[in-house]
From TrEMBL:
Keyword Transferase included in the entry's annotation: yes
InterPro entries: Aminotransferase_I/II_large, Kynurenine-oxoglutarate_AT, PyrdxlP-dep_Trfase, PyrdxlP-dep_Trfase_major, PyrdxlP-dep_Trfase_small
Keywords annotated in UniProt: Aminotransferase, Pyridoxal phosphate, Transferase
Organism lineage string: Bacteria, Bacillati, Actinomycetota, Actinomycetes, Micrococcales
Presence of the UniProt keyword Transferase in the record: yes
A single GO molecular function term of this UniProt record: pyridoxal phosphate binding
Cofactor needs: pyridoxal 5'-phosphate
Taxonomic superkingdom: Bacteria
Protein's name according to its UniProt entry: N-succinyldiaminopimelate aminotransferase
């Protein structure tokens, strides 16, 4: 007998917001989790705040008068700190005046970059699954969204497929490394191929690196460090993930002065500027010592392994991430009789009521064809307290009994 969550082809897209600007999947699942009191492993935000010292800096900045508009390009201290961060970790030289732009989260940097460079007649190439705002912003820009698939189990780039996805109309290639939702960290070979093809087709590279400090195997390697890349690359990051302050929405873009000037021009009319006291606190926070940065990845690795074990014991097939804070798990083995039918989008809607755990279906990060390929995958966030992950694992263990 087919279960309600195992049904439809259309079901795979019930929750999708891609290409249709409805309520985002994050909003929808978080609302559902709140209503049912479920453990929210859906939306990717930590359930513990970042360092108290950084919070104290916000209060000090407010008391010290940092309460009016920040300059459009960001306060000088933060631009300096971002420039020093790029030098310290990656030996990348960016001029704080012309080559750094502070934005309202990485989200605004992504939006302003796409709107600055892409319009009708252009193609923007992303990998698929893709982070939801990419699809929405490419749609708003009027450009065509072309994708190259990343497939389970390792979600690595297939170089031939990537090459076939480029064309003379490719204006931007937008990658996300480490990758959300899959947790893949792209190989050096894949990064080199992206640079080679972007150069051949004279496309710009936009690299969303918000999970740069959350890697489990090897240190992060920005694509801008590869030969020939820096001159055509805009790198985007955010304080949200690194410091566990997603609500502060302090992000940034770095790259060649002419490219950053174009992004800044659009950004002026999106928000102009935001979060003056938060900018001040993050300017200070970026100077944390090496132990701090190492500690973030170490503690997340333990959480990843805890949740991965729980999911395996519950009967899921687990695709272990190399970076970021999401695990993709396949629901198909939970119902061997109708494994072909397993539909994670329907299950995601029922999971909070069934066992009190919320997750996001990977199909919502896809256009219909790829949604079909990824329809049995659920994405679980593990940036949560250890006791929350332990309880989630326990509840997931009861899923087999209630299905
Ligand atoms: N890019 C990716 C890949 C993300 O996962 C997120 C959110 N977690 C963002 C961008 C948005 O970052 P911010 O909250 O700084 O706007
Ligand atoms: N980036 C977060 C995630 O992937 C969510 C951000 C949002 O809610 N827009 O879960």
């Amino acid at each position: 007998m087919s279960m309600p969550w195992q049904r439809t082809a259309e079901g795979a897209n019930l929750l999708s917001t891609n290409g249709r600007l409805g309520v985002t999947i994050f909003e929808e699942i978080t609302t559902l989790a709140t209503r049912t009191g479920a453990l929210n492993l859906g939306q990717g935000f930590p359930d513990e705040d970042g360092p108290q010292e950084i919070k104290d800096r916000v209060k000090a900045a407010v008391d010290g008068g940092a309460n009016q508009y920040a300059p459009g390009r960001g306060i000088p201290e933060l631009r300096e700190a971002i420039s020093s961060h790029q030098k310290r970790f990656y030996s990348l030289a960016v001029d704080p005046e012309q080559e750094v732009l502070v934005t309202t989260g990485a989200t605004e940097a992504i939006a302003a970059t796409i709107l600055a460079f892409a319009s009708a007649g252009d193609e923007v190439l992303t990998f698929e699954p893709f982070y939801d705002s990419y699809g929405a912003m490419i749609g708003l820009s009027g450009a065509r969204h072309v994708t190259a698939p990343l497939n389970a189990p390792d979600f690595q780039v297939d170089l031939e497929t990537l090459e076939a996805a480029f064309s003379s109309r490719t204006r931007l290639v937008l990658l996300n490394n480490p990758h959300n939702p899959s947790g893949a960290v792209f190989s050096l070979e894949a990064l080199q191929k992206i640079v080679e093809l972007a150069t051949k087709y004279d496309a710009l590279i936009v690299s969303d690196e918000v999970y740069e400090h959350l890697t489990f195997d090897a240190p992060h390697r920005p694509i801008a460090t590869l030969p020939g890349a820096a001159e055509r690359t805009i790198t985007i990051s955010s304080a949200g993930k690194t410091f566990s302050f997603t609500g502060w929405k302090v992000g940034w873009a770095t790259g060649p002065a002419t490219l950053i000037a174009a992004v800044r021009t659009v950004k002026q009319f999106l928000t102009y500027s935001s979060g003056t006291p938060f900018q001040a606190a993050i300017a200070w926070g970026l100077g944390q010592n090496d132990e701090f940065y190492q500690g973030i990845a170490d503690s997340l690795r333990q959480k990843r392994d805890l949740l991965a074990n729980g999911l395996r014991e519950a009967g899921f097939t687990v695709h272990l991430p190399q970076g970021g804070y999401f695990i993709n798990a396949d629901v198909a083995p939970l119902s061997l009789a109708s494994a072909q039918e397993a539909d994670a989008a329907l299950l995601a809607r029922q999971l909070p009521e069934l066992i009190g755990v919320a997750a996001i279906p990977v199909s919502v990060f896809c256009h219909p064809e790829a949604a079909q390929r990824n329809r049995s995958l659920l994405r679980f966030a593990f940036c949560k307290k250890t006791e929350v992950l332990e309880e989630a694992a326990r509840r997931l263990g009861t899923l087999k009994d209630v299905l």
